[in-house]
Amino acid sequence: MSTFAKQTFDATIYAASRPTYPKALFDYIFAYHGTGIPPNVKALSPERTAKGRVVASPRWEQAVDLGCGTGQATTELTRFKKVIGIEPGEKMISSAKSHILDTLGKDALAQFTFVQSAAEKLDCLEDQSTDMVIAAQACHWFDWSKLWPELSRVIRPGGTGAFWVYSEFRLTKYPSLTPLISEFMQGEDPATSLGPHWQRPGRTILENHLVDVPAPPTDLGFGEMDRIYFTGAYHSGFPRANVFPVILRNATTWGGLLGYLRTASSLHTFHERYPEDLQRTDGDISERFWKALMKSASEVDGKEYQAQDKLMVDWPVALLLVKKL
Question: Model confidence at 14, in pLDDT bands (50, 70, 90)?
């Protein structure tokens, strides 16, 4: 994603302000790695079996994080003996290394290797060398026509692909404010909304919860791809058996939410197109929206909120899972 590679992009602020992935998400993915069947989906659909889905016992030798960014997901792969982060942005890789050092300590650094490369170019990986490939908040940018053949080459039989994104945030306590959020994030007016400033089609693929990501071609040796939605009641239209409660929920503050809003790539683009917005005395477009959102919440509760007040934020998650047979 080109915005993250620009010299003006601040990877440190991005890493500090983005939500972190819960252990429950990785437990879910690791359980799938062991069985080839998504947890809970089997129980809801008794007719599903592992027949034709897994031909080899899974191994825990090497994992790869595509578009690893600042390493938020990379550090959760320590069950594997070797972890490789692949990322096109130099600043992101530097931030990821710092994150490993801060989170896991100096002794863990030897377990991790980073390669500056596009996700579709996996020359650094040998054939059938990898047991799990993940992508967190990145796969909506990939060229899957190029990536699926590469994944087929590098993932060994029994290996797993797990790719997920989180979509537009929701305020747990304030469902009535969802239209206000969507108008800011997806509206059509380029002067008052971030909608026209997202890079497409990537953002559209994310907003559609990865339904536009194609399943791997049948001749590449993959099993059926499962689509899982940790979206709760926020979105409809998905197969009921594959929908689960929200798994990505962060306790933060109103000030923390403003920090998150300022990491949006579309906001970076907005300010390139409207640099005068940063000079406004009432705050830039993200701060003005944040103030309006906080004011609306205050009206709902009948009390005035400040930046330091606590807030619960939900992010619906879409997850793709696939096995190499």
Answer: low
- % of the chain residues with pLDDT over 90: 88
**AA identity, residue 153:** R
pLDDT given at position 16:
74
If one compares 53 and 148, the residue with the highest pLDDT of the two is 148
Q: How far is Cα of residue 26 from the mean position of the Cα atoms in its chain?
A: 13
| Lookup: tokens for 99 | 């994150």
Residue 274 near residue 9 (C-beta atoms within 8 A): no
What SS3 state is found at 50?
coil
The strand pair at 170-171 and 310-315 is best described as antiparallel
Contact between 157 and 184 (Cβ < 8 Å): no
Q: How many helices (H) and strands (E) does the chain have?
A: 10, 10
Q: Is the pLDDT at 100 greater than 50, yes or no?
A: yes
State the residue for tokens 């059938």.
Answer: 128
Report d(CA 167, CA 200) in Å as an integer. Answer: 15
List, edge to edge, every strand of the sheet that includes 62-66: 112-116, 82-87, 62-66, 130-136, 155-166, 317-323, 226-230
